Amino acid sequence: xxxxxxxxxxxxxxxxxxxxxxxxxxxxxxxxxxxxxxxxxxxxxxxxxxxxxxxxxxxxxxxxxxxxxxxxxxxxxxxxxxxxxxxxx
Length: 89
What we know:
The protein is mainly α. It has a single domain (2-88), classed as DnaA protein, C-terminal DNA-binding domain (Chromosomal Replication Initiator Protein Dnaa, Chain: A). 76% of the residues lie in helices and 0% in strands. It has 6 helices and no strands. It has helices at 2-12, 16-19, 26-41, 47-53, 58-74, 76-88. The protein is globular and about 30 Å long.
């Protein structure tokens, strides 16, 4: 998950410490959700394992994946960001 996080940090210019923090600011939460989505998409662990990377439980990770799946369909900028990240993985 470190590689995905590093790419998201590079693409968004948001410091890693803010993305992995417990902050509830939308911009940070959204990037954290994207990392969780990609980690699950690439089968990097169970919801519980992925959530623990961010000190969150499995239900938060599950919710994050669903949110990002919806955003991909409704937000072109998020879809483009995710595609850029995937090409770098």
